[in-house]
Amino acid sequence: MSGDIAIDDNDIPVSPQGEAERIAALRRYRILDTDAEPAFDRIVKMVALLLDVPIALISLVDTDRQWFKAAQGLKVRETPRCIAFCDHAIRGQEIFVVPDAKADPRFADNPLVTGEPFLRFYAGVPLVTADGHALGTLCALDQAPQHLDARGETILNELAAQAMHELDVRAALGDLYDQVDRGYHAQRALRSTNLQLAALLNATANAVVAADSETHIIAWNRAAEEMFGYTPEDVAGRPMAYLLSERYRAAEAGELSQCGAIGDGTPRLLHGQRKNGQEFPMEVFLACWDDPLAAASFGIIVRDVTLRSQRLDEISRSRVHLAEAQRIAALGSWDWTVDDDLITLSEQMTHLLGLSAERSVTKEAFLDRVHADDRIAFRAEVARVLTGDPSSSFTFRVRGEKDGLRILRGSCRLVEGWDGRVNRVIGVAQDVTDLSRREAVEREREKLVALGELAGGVAHELNNLLQPILSLVELSLGFIRRGSLSADDRAEMGDYFVCVLDYTRQGREIVRQILRFARKEGAILSDVDFVAEVRGTLGFLHGVLPSGIRLVTVIEPNIVGTARVNSVELTQIMTNLAVNAAYAMDGQGRLTVSLFEVAFSGAACDSLGLQPGDYFRLSIADTGQGMPEAIRSRIFEPFFTTKPIGEGTGLGLSVVHGIVHSWGGAIEVESTVGQGTTFILYIPKLRDIVSHEEM
Amino acid sequence: MANILLIEDMKGVRLALCAVLRHGGHTVTEADDGASGLEILRSGRRFDLVITDILMPTIDGIEVIMFLEAQSNHPPIIAISGGGSQMPSDKALMLAKTKADAVLSKPFDNADLLATIDRLLHK
């Protein structure tokens, strides 16, 4: 047939009713949008080969599109119906040929002709159902004009019939086709799931073990192999209880077979055992399910919690340790996150604040425990820390539980919170009530000891004065009682009384000093002849030192000068240092007291914290055991003592330090272990202005 | 009457006791500290009695007494003590340590001193 006739034949409009029926027929075939199938693919391949065209299609014409069940030489799977050559072909029952689309007024403007894929030739045979509906075409296309000869027409007709047959077979198989299709998809989905599961199972560090309903192990993952140390062959068929520690197996095996709620998510903490016998704590999640093949119906997920158990142990041990340490030290701690109104208290802090069991209180409740007079100061200290002071320390009183006011020494510090913000204040407070009382008692005791030492020295001095007075007065009385006195007797008695007068006056001076001390006039400084004061004190030292100590005095010749000190305190200091020295020498050794004059300027002043000028350098050196640096650096601290408990108060040197500083002087100590210790006092020497002007 | 060595570093005490002893009829040799006292004793001079102070610088009375104790047939010793801070225990300790024949605590009466000397010389 010629193309012209074909055009006329196929240009008959289709009635709406006929089209609806045709679409219904197409739907019945359930072919649209199905996957490619070899039977159809083969047909279009044959068309392309046999007719020597680049493009061949099985096109099904839908409501407003043509969809290709099979396509050779074309990548698209569908095009709009309005531009479809096939829409023309299906209006007839016979082959529809367009030898050159450019020369055909119906197709010259078709976008498939003017643009990609630049079609020129079309030959399509309608695929007509038994009841006469053309579902689409089998068509051949080329980008060059072509003439379809009789042989070509026959081939296309035969193959179209074959395509229609395949469509009919496919429709006849119907549901079976779908089932095969669904099975194919389900299989692929299953395979994908299996791959995902396998990947996940191998990626986790948790052991995953599957077992049958009798809990015999069927499979497990790599982590299980590593955790327990068994190969899959080692454990296959063994009960899961095999993974439990031998010691606990009997008690815990039941846990592994009781699976109440599927995936209840509640872990059991059990004792595992590795192949090498090592026990470890494990956290076990149980799962069970109804398996259709009854292959596996039971599973466990095991997490090795050795590290966590150790951490928990450590944490709980440190907690106990901290609480115990706080209890022993009577030291509590508190923690306040600034944004929050609540302050967290340690157990000991709760106790110190006189609260019963509260471990967390509001700011106001905390301050309420603080003595009313100390609240403002307490707030100020916390505020100071909040505004940038790195830390603060202070003393405050709290109302105790039953025994009245307690004195707490506290300090606090601003710290970084867990979220990196600097908004937490952490504080500690220690009960120093007893310590404060003890300090007061110790201070008093120290005073008595110092007084006792002083009294001993004074007694010795007085006795040595009273002895000649007593003896000489008695002798003189003997002379007088004898009646007649010779001139020699009178002269001798005169000498006696000169001595008696002198000794009595010396005694009076000693008594005056004692009274000054007793009236606590100690702190009053006066300008004294420093050298004479030192010499005077050396007399006391004789009476105080044990007999095994040799006292050597080295005083710079012709040294004179005045210092503004307190004589009683000077005696106290020298006595204290001498007694310490005697202790360091264990009663045997040499004590050297030296007095020189020195002039200070510049760096020498800075290191000692002194003003430039002239100083008396009074040193007291012993040949005792000396001190290591750790002790040397602390000796001026109050209560620091190296003496056994009960022998020393530790206050002596801190008092000495305080007194020397109150005179504007300084004290330093040099010590070599095994050789001895030297205390050096620098006392400002007053410039004797009056005598200077007189000169 | 006796030939007595008096060792005492406090000048006032030494002078007064010397006067008492001389008026009591004794011959007195004075030493103004422990060192010179020991020197005199070591020189071989013999005394009927030695009186020594306890607390003295460098060589004290205890050393003097220990020196005498080491000699056979040593003269009787009287220790005189000025007393220190721990008087009561100090005295007992001193007696035990020094083995002095008598201890007198300053200030003592002349009569006590002379009576003690008398007692020790006629024992």
Describe the protein in words.
The complex is a heterodimer of chains A (695) and B (123). Chain A is an alpha+beta fold. Chain A folds into 5 domains: 3-178, 2-Layer Sandwich (Beta-Lactamase), CATH 3.30.450.40; 204-304, Beta-Lactamase (2-Layer Sandwich); 312-431, 2-Layer Sandwich (Beta-Lactamase), CATH 3.30.450.20; 437-518; 526-691, 2-Layer Sandwich (Heat Shock Protein 90), CATH 3.30.565. Helix content of chain A is 44%, strand content 24%. Chain A is built from 22 helices and 24 strands. A 6-stranded antiparallel β-sheet of chain A has the order 3-2-1-6-5-4. In chain A, strands 14-13-12-17-16-15 form a 6-stranded antiparallel β-sheet, with helices on both faces. In chain A, strands 8-7-11-10-9 form a 5-stranded antiparallel β-sheet, with helices on both faces. In chain A, helix 3 runs antiparallel to helix 6, helix 15 (433-481) packs across helix 17 and helix 17 (530-544) crosses helix 18. Chain A is rod-shaped. Residues 1-11, 644-651 and 689-695 of chain A have low confidence and may be disordered. By secondary structure, chain B is α/β, with parallel strands linked by helices. Chain B has a single domain, classed as Rossmann fold, CATH 3.40.50. Helix content of chain B is 46%, strand content 20%. Chain B has helices at residues 11-23, 34-42, 61-70, 87-98, 110-121; strands at 3-7, 27-31, 49-53, 77-81, 102-105. A 5-stranded parallel β-sheet of chain B has the order 2-1-3-4-5, sandwiched between helices. In chain B, helix 4 links the parallel strand 4 (77-81) and strand 5 (102-105). The two termini of chain B are 15 Å apart. The relative contact order of chain B is 0.18. Chain A binds chain B through residues 452-453, 455-457, 459-460, 463-472, 474-475, 478, 492, 496, 499, 502-503, 542-544, 547, 550-551, and chain B through 10, 12-13, 15-17, 19-20, 23, 54-58, 60, 62, 82-87, 105-111.
